[in-house]
Structure formats: C-alpha cells, structure tokens
Amino acid sequence: MKKGTGKKILNIVKWIFNVVIGIFIVLFILVVCLQRFSNNELAFFDYRMFTVLTGSMEPKYNVGDVLFAKEIDPNDIQVGDAISYLGKSGDVKDKVVTHEVVEIETSENGEKLFHTKGIANIIEDPIVHEDQIYGKIIHKSTILSFISKTIRTPIGLVILIIIPVFYIIGSEMLSALLLREEKRRNRE
User: Fold this and answer.
1) Tens of pLDDT along 106-151?
2) Fewest 10 Å CB contacts: which of 51, 133, 135, 173?
3) Partners of 51 in the β-ladder
4) SS3 at position 60
5) For the residues 83-99, what does the mean pLDDT come to?
6) What 3-state class would DSSP assign to 77?
7) How many domains does one find in the chain?
8) For residues 79 and 116, what is the distance between their CA atoms, to the nearest angstrom?
9) What percent of the chain has a predicted confidence (pLDDT) above 90?
10) Any idea what the Cα angle at residue 152 is, between residues 150 and 52, rounded to 5°?
C-alpha cells in the first residue's frame, strides 16, 4: 500500500460519516419542523408523522412515540384500527388525536362516521367525520421514538444534537487546518 493511501481512505470514510450524520440531522429537523409548523397539513407521498403527546393510547403507544399514518380511503378503515384525525369539537377541538376506532356508522348521506376512543380512556371522543381523518397508523418507529423521547431531555438534546453538530463543525475545521498545514509544508 502506498504511503498516504490509508490516510486517503480514512478521510473518505470520515467524510461519508459526516455527510450521513449531517443528512440525518437535517432531515429529522426538517420533518419535525414541517410537522409542527404546517399543523400536519402536509403529507409526503400520503404519509404523515405524529408524536404521541398523551398516555391515552397506553400501553400500545406511549408518550413520545413517533407514529406514521397513511392516508387511506375511509371505507378501508375497520374497528380496531388506530387513526389520526383533527378534532373539531369538545376537548379535542383543533388537536391532532390518535385513537382507536371502536364503532363505524354510515350517515343518511353515505358519509362514514367513526367512534374513537383512547385505549386508556373511559369516554369516547366526539364523532369523527371522514374529512377529519389524516390517516391510519401503520407503523411505530422505534428508532425515531427513542430519539424523540431522548431529545426531550436536556442531556438527550446535548448528546443527539449539540455534540454531533459540534463534531461535524470541528472535524471540518480540523480538516481545513490540516490541509492548509500540508500545503504550507509542501511549499517549503
């Protein structure tokens, strides 16, 4: 192996690692910001991401869990499915709610009406009309749930966001300084 080949490979691996971490951080922040600031009005390829804020669906979904919902035809929703919807009245007005469907009715005009309730709740939610539904929960992300729960703690924020950002910035500054020093030595 030529002198410097190992160093080049190490630099390439380090660069790829930095790019992957950077992309992950940017995408995660982008998705969370879009979710928060769009009031969940935006869907990516018919998918939305939600974070559980209350214990109403425990033990199935815990506070901080990250769920993915897929937009589906209301006719495909069945009793027992967990759905996310925008509340229009009562305690859930203007809140995104993820609860389980306990009963389905069809109104006189053919519209589906959903009775929903949190697993841990005693009382049913106000009736959910099909136009309120964001989607059916299809996946709970273990990794994003862990990150979401961890990032809500001060030490988690430092470990998962601040340290990686400083690592990327520091390694880029160090690489630039080393490159400048190497060029200086080659000129001498």
Assistant:
1) 988 989 999 999 999 998 989 999 989 998 999 888 877 777 777 7
2) 173
3) 66
4) coil
5) 87
6) coil
7) 1
8) 9
9) 19
10) 90
The verdict on residue 181 lying in a domain is no
Give, as one character, the DSSP assignment of residue 44. Answer: B
- Residue 25 in domain: no
CB 93 within 8 A of CB 46: no
Task: Answer whether residue 176 is part of any domain.
Answer: no
Q: Is residue 81 part of a domain?
A: yes
What confidence tens digit (pLDDT) does each residue in 26-49 have?
776 666 666 666 666 666 677 787
Residue 107 belongs to domain with CATH number: 2.10.109.10
Host domain of residue 121: 38-150
Cα 64 to its chain centre, rounded Å, is 10
- Looking at the DSSP bridge assignments, the partners of residue 50 are 67
- Cα(86)–Cα(179) distance, rounded to whole angstroms? 54
- Judge if pTM exceeds 0.85: no
Strands (E) across 58-151 are located at: 66-70, 82-86, 96-106, 112-117, 128-129, 133-141
Q: How many CB atoms lie within 10 A of CB 46?
A: 10
Pairing of strands 133-141, 82-86: antiparallel
